Amino acid sequence: MPAYKYPLLIKQLLLTPSVRTPNKEIVYRDLVRFDYRTLFERINRLGSSLEKLGVKQGDTVAVVDYDSHRYLESFFAIPMLGAVLHTVNWRLPPEQMLYTMNHAGDKIVLVHSDFLPVLESFGDKLTTVEKFILLTDDNKKPDTKLNIEVEYEEMLRAGSASYDFPDFDEDTQASIFYTTGTEGAPKGVYFTHRQIVLHTLGIGMVGTLHNCPRFVFSEEVYMPLTPMFHVHAWGNPYLATLLGMKQVYSGKYDIPMLLKLIKEEGVTYTHCVPTILDILLLGAEMEGGDLSKLKAAVGGAALPGGVAQRALKAGVQFFGAYGLSETCPAVAVCDLKEDMLDWDIDRKGSVLKRPGLPVPLAQIEVMDTSGNKLPHDGKSTGEVVCRTPWLTEGYFKEPERSEELWRDGWLHTGDIGYIDEGGYLYLTDRIKDVVKSGGEWISSLKLEDLVSEHEAVAEAGVVAMPDERWGERPMAVVVPKPEYKDKISPDDIKKFLQKFVDDGTISKWAVPDRIEFVAQLPHTVVGKVDKKVLRKQYQ
Predict the structure, then answer these.
(1) What is the CATH number of the domain that holds 482?
(2) Which pLDDT band, with edges at 50, 70 and 90, does 382 fall under?
């Protein structure tokens, strides 16, 4: 009889905690609490119930929920069936949510009652969805136009507590989600079982490399502050489950609730974008909260120096992390080398807020425009490229974009940076002038186009400006038409943009805080607005 090939499947991540930590807890707000034994039973019940509803290998099941125990169960049960987990970004405008759900081919949708109104607004345009499963915190069934098949807990009670998930090829697709860039429709990014398992092992190994503040282990109490719809909450729920950590899920982000959970549940490990860290620090300062036992991976945008200093003073042990939606996401995590451990806290902080060093099994380089690797000398700047076993193979149903992403056999990040002699990555700019504000992406090109639609505007340029709270904010530099030179104000532009917020074209965060009026804009030799000059002028 041939040897068992042992495919790297997500279900294998449950083997260790089932033996080592069956009594650890899963907590949802102040509403739900159960142990890992119950978690495994609930995963089995969810898998068997979805099979009864007709979910087969290759089908796509969407989840529209806050961070919750239900989402954690979906992270496992849906791909363990051989189906594809679609983590729907409910922060997208409704028309983009609709696009992603149709593009992904969602068959079943698990939806929290809070999101029923937005799904109702385009429910008749969903082309592949067959059934909706209701998620509630109070077991109440709200009135809705959607055809609800069953409520989640009711469905689980009818499922099997000892369901046997099948084996299949480890390269089977496990998940899909959508990222928005500077232009065009959202792009589908997908990952296989093998990639997610290897990513989990890779980020888990980081904690064994050096004795530094970033070290995390099974005794941590984990609570994500990155939405679970975004790159599997940076892969940490899989790692937390593998290591058997106590896990706390906050539901809808609410600063008093977050601080309460951190205090009462003893949360010690999280991850977030700088904006959330800033708001958390502010909440703790106002309410006297204690964050001194908290370790936090910070990524998604550059960590402003002011936020880093406040975090250090609060005793938060933060560390930088770097990756993209396309990279699952971790390719670099910042830790201190042995010769840095005796540095003072400010000097350590200046290092720890950087993107950091490649995680195990990751290779990071910078390349010039001809595809040549540049030296790690702390000054040679080029595009950041990478290779790991867990990078997406491309964009779903978009072969041309996929080929561009993977040209020359390297995944091209679109970020500009350099690597120093010690191997630390530094980011300096982006190839595309996208604005990263609070972890969200805002298209400068789209804003320029919308501002230019105002009757008084002759030309507009939008650039990212550093912001202590949000990391970056868009700034618009506007050339008014001669007849409107003294008749237009920044408030006029903001009011004009508000209608595009109201109709879902842009988010409210895209409206620039700062708008300057000038006689003319700087241009490149080919006639484009020279944004490098604008940034230098206004920073």
Answers:
(1) 3.30.300.30
(2) confident
Query: Which pTM does this prediction carry?
Result: 0.84
Nearest to 302 by CA among 441, 466, 421: 466
DSSP 375: P
* Cβ atoms 199, 174 nearer than 8 A: no
**CA–CA dist 320, 336 (Å, integer):** 11
> At which of 352, 383, 402 does a domain end?
352
Q: Over the stretch 409-440, which tens digit does the pLDDT of each residue have? A: 999 999 888 999 999 999 876 776 778 788 77
Q: Of 324, 352, 380, which one is at a domain's C-terminal end? A: 352
Which distant-in-sequence residues (6+ apart) come within 8 Å of 332 by Cβ? 321, 322, 323, 355, 356, 357, 358, 359, 362, 364, 425
User: Regarding beta strands 131-135 and 106-112, do their DSSP bridges make them parallel or antiparallel, or are they unpaired?
Assistant: parallel
Do residues 290 and 425 share a domain? no
Residues designated catalytic: 179, 326, 436, 441
CATH number for the domain harbouring residue 329 = 3.40.50.12780
- Amino acid found at 184: G
Q: In what order do the strands lie in the sheet with 363-367?
A: 363-367, 382-387, 411-419, 425-430
Total domains in the fold of the chain: 3
**Same-domain status, 268 and 405:** no
Task: State the Cα–Cα distance between residues 510 and 529, nearest whole angstrom.
Answer: 20
pLDDT in tens, 222-250: 999 999 999 999 999 999 999 999 999 99
Instruction: Give strand pairing partners of 182.
Output: none
Q: What is the pLDDT of residue 432?
A: 67
Asked if residue 274 lies in contact with residue 440, where contact means CB atoms within 8 angstroms, the answer is: no
pLDDT in tens, 51-65: 999 999 999 999 999
Q: Which domain holds residue 413?
A: 362-430
CB neighbours of residue 150 within 10 Å: 15
